[in-house]
Amino acid sequence: MRDFSYLRADTIEAARNASALPGAMLLAGGTTLVDLAKCGVAEPSTVIDISHIDGLNTIDITPERAVIGALAKMSHVADNVEVKSRFPAVSEALWQAASAQLRNMATIGGNLMQRTRCPYFRDPQNFPACNKRAPGSGCSAIGGVTRGHAVLGVSEACIATYPGDLAIALVAFDAEVHLGERKLKVEDFFLAPGATAEREHDIRPGEVITAIEIPGSAAARRSTYIKVRDRQSYEFAAASAAVGLELEADGRTIRDIRVALGGVATRPWRARAVEDTLRGKALDEHIVREACELAMQGAVDHGANHYKIALAPRVAARAILKLGETA
Amino acid sequence: MTAHDMKHAGSDSARLEAVGGRLSRVDGPAKITGAARYAFEQQLDGLTHAVLVGATIAAGKVAAIDSRAAETAPGVLAVLTPDTIMELKGASDWLGNPPAKPTYGPLAREVTYSGQHIAAVVAETFEQAVAAAGLVKVTYDETPAIVDLSDGKAGDGIPIDMMTKEWGDAQGAFAAAPVRICAAYNTPREFQAAMEPHGLIARWQGDELTIWEPSQWLDGMARTYAEWFAIPFENVRLVSPYIGGGFGSKALALAHSAVAAAAAKMLNRPVKLVLNRPQNFTSYGGRAATRQTVAIGADKDGKIQSIVHRGVNETAVDGMWVEPLGSVTSIMYATPNFSSKQNVVRVNTVVPGAKRAPGENPSAFGIESAIDELAYELGLDPLEMRLINYAEEDPQVKKPWSTRQLREAFAVGAEAFGWAKRSPAPRSMRDGRQLIGWGMAAGTYPVRRAHGEAVVKIMADGSVEVESSSIDMGQGTYTILAQTAAETLGVPVEQVSVKLGDSHFARAGVTGGSRLAGVMTGAVYKAAGQALDELIGLALSDPRSPFQKVQANTLSVKDGRIASPRGDGPDLSIAELMSAIGREKIEAKGDTMPASTTPEERYKNYTTIAMSIPHTEGNYSRHSWCAHFVEVRVDEDFGTVRVSRVVSALDSGRLYNPKLAESQWKGGIIMGIGQALLEEGIVDRRHGRIVNGNFADYMLPTNADIPDIQTISVGIPDPHSSALGGKGVGELAIVGIAPAIANAVFHATGKRVRDLPITLEKLI
């Protein structure tokens, strides 16, 4: 049997202390950890159950910001009336993620720690080479089946796609992750693989995610999340876009715009070139579509994922145009 | 399985309960509440657990297996390898052909596909077995693999002469035809993807073997176990009370079955072995990948002059599977000239197998796509095109159809769908940024027939028991056999209990090819009729019977009560009569075989498929038919296809239970939507290995992908197809759905996708 110790942490301090143990992993909703343990990717020596810590599942929303506790369930956040009205892209991203059963179990903090769905990463028995699992062992995906793999932020070490939806919306609206002493931009929390594919998050031993904080903004209030995939539900994105829009008083000039992409990059991908180009421009379909092509600057495909380079700008453009249609 | 919860269905009229009534599934409450115990959920004392170790190469030899670490791991009872597992005898195949080799080793030394079983660990607990299986170290001498049909090493394959169908001068007529189309159509490797995995519990008591295993064919699988272990057929008992989805995959005892039964014998302990989800993609075959070329030549008025068809399907290096690709091509349309030939190509895969409508399904994708292409070439409406070329008789065997309500299906389906409002040009219908497409296709499935037997018992309390070794995998056998017995005997359906899924019951052949309902309603009808005759005979002749004084030569039984036809004598419940004449039970065994059938022929009938009755036997050609009308919405930016409406009109002859038939049709349509848009076993061509062998990555439709589906029965009783007039239901509706969707996608977008599935990158 693959034995491990189980520790229940009833306070954040206890969780922080225990998480510094070698081979320790946190258990919240369990939807990622149990899954990865079953396929042989996660082999924790200690599992620290943080699901009983009080006060970590609150959702606190003011006009200035939303602060969402790390143990809040995805479904609760998605269904929160204030989240829906002030951060619709956040709610929509959550609703389109996973399945109802998973959303009822999975937590917001755990969601940020969700790992890639790269089939080579998830099958250590058949594919020993994986730089994420075993640094320096190589990448089995390059040269293999790559339909779902990233085209942005890739390296020779790793082309695995960041799979989540929520973090795309968080990155678009400059959200921060609370790690105790440290607060980090969510965008900086996720690391591109570079030569160190095993390092996916800027989180240190002894740190525990306690909350995420999203600044309120006009763009966040007028926002949406579009997710494109082969089937209508329960699938990771072929490409997705979280977009926020603020128009000038004339109702057609773009004052503020946020664009982030999912399903196409190794981490949540903020498309600043698109934003910079569109800010101050008129909200016009041709201009929007042309600007969205800039999101793919530097894209590198591996054959079967080539379609993402065409698809992702269209998803972003459609999200912007959709917001433009809603007064 | 009893029918006592039947009132859940709200069935308060006799009509509902009779054959042809819309009775809800009698096994439904047990399944919904979790009370139904499936085959390998049995709890046995001393149960041990086996976990398989699969090959990580696609071709080569096992050089060495180091099992020392596994053997000493906690709880481990045995590590079985090709060298240590007991030797089994070879078993004959499903046609009854004797084995090629006298012995059989279910663990492989020679690896011919990735995931092939090469070792197994048996331990006290499942977790111990999983952990120890991970400690087994295997080294290989790897050789190059042929990974799929497009592999350069694959070649043209082996001609299968028995698949050749030819009449007239197909090549000459095609060359001379004024209008011609020729295109290639491909379907990928697809999987049955049943929710319930494959697995079993095996227990030996002396030389008697009991197997709890989900099974579409108890008698056939029991025969295989008996031959493997060289024990009498009667010594094997196979139990399969419910099946959580089979779709063709659960009709045979497979290598993992042999491993579990051998381990149980070697350890003298019961062994449970359940394939994990990835193993369900490599331990038995799904639908073979296929390639077809369809060439059609026609007159300028659309009349087909020639069809030339060539097909290829993949098979295994060490096993043969022929997916009959010309089966629909040769019968759907009238043509004076025809040629169809087929090859199979060996690749490094587990031997492919049956998946819902094997043959007819990919065959229809080819011909029904090609007909649509021809209609556009000619500027004809696709429905008109089909009517112009309507086959008034079977064009291949030149016999009349037993019944063919396809013209009615076209008319009724088109009317319900609103086909006449279709704007014919591609890209001519839209809703905002969604392109709308309307497409149609026809489908067909042959009436496969065999024989079955059933026991019907009238008990002292007036209740009725039906026993058969046939099975219910969700299609409704429990329900329709209760309805058949109730109607034949004249008792309320809630007094009937049906027992299935035990090979010690009266025998039945395979539940496959959409034949079971027709076979088994016939057998129950016969057995119940015999039981009724005996009941009435006793009532009239037994000196203790109150009816002895009645001057009647028969009696009527209705609602469980017996009376004289004129109602002028006693009126007794069956229980009262049984009590009066002192009988514990009346038991009758009925079968559908000629009386002259020998015991050897009976055994062969139930344990092989060699005695199936051809659908073109005698004076008629017997088939079910359908017409599908589909609406799709294609996002013009994203290329995503969503099916927004399906109307299907179907001819399955008489329906024994329309509610259950509609559910089966809808299930087939849903599976067809998955085939058209989502399903594909994706092979890493460097390793010859399926990389999406799980339910997250092997895409099946979700509820959100399924629109309202309207099914309309246009069948009429077909006396040439079955005792009660039904034709096949289960496999019919999937046939033609994929081409209907592909045709609708062409109408929406102007793009003809000839490679399934129709994924978004093929449209953007």
Describe the structure.
The complex is a heterodimer of chains A (327) and B (764). Chain A has 327 residues and is of the alpha+beta class. Chain A has two domains: 5-49, Uridine Diphospho-n-acetylenolpyruvylglucosamine Reductase, domain 2; 59-113 and 163-325, 2-Layer Sandwich (Enolase-like, domain 1), CATH 3.30.390. Helices cover 29% and strands 17% of the residues of chain A. Chain A has 13 helices and twelve strands. In chain A, the strands form three sheets. Chain A has a five-stranded antiparallel beta sheet with strand order 4-5-8-6-7. A four-stranded antiparallel beta sheet of chain A has the order 9-10-11-12, sandwiched between helices. A three-stranded parallel beta sheet of chain A has the order 1-3-2, with helices on one face. In chain A, helix 5 (88-95) runs antiparallel to helix 8, helix 11 (272-278) runs antiparallel to helix 12 and helix 12 packs antiparallel against helix 13 (307-325). Chain A is globular. Residues 1-14 of chain B have low confidence and may be disordered. The longest helix of chain B is centred in the last third of the chain and has 26 residues, at 516-541. In chain B, 24% of the residues lie in helices and 24% in strands. In chain B, the strands form eight sheets. Chain B has a seven-stranded mixed beta sheet with strand order 3-7-1-15-12-13-14. Chain B is built from 16 helices and 32 strands. By secondary structure, chain B is an alpha+beta fold. Chain A binds chain B through residues 1-2, 40, 117, 119-120, 123, 125-126, 143-145, 147, 228-235, 238, 306-307, 310-311, 314-315, 317-318, and chain B through 56, 74-75, 114, 125, 127-128, 131, 134, 433, 635, 637-640, 642, 677-678, 682-684, 686-687, 689, 691-692, 696-697, 699, 701-705, 759-761, 764.
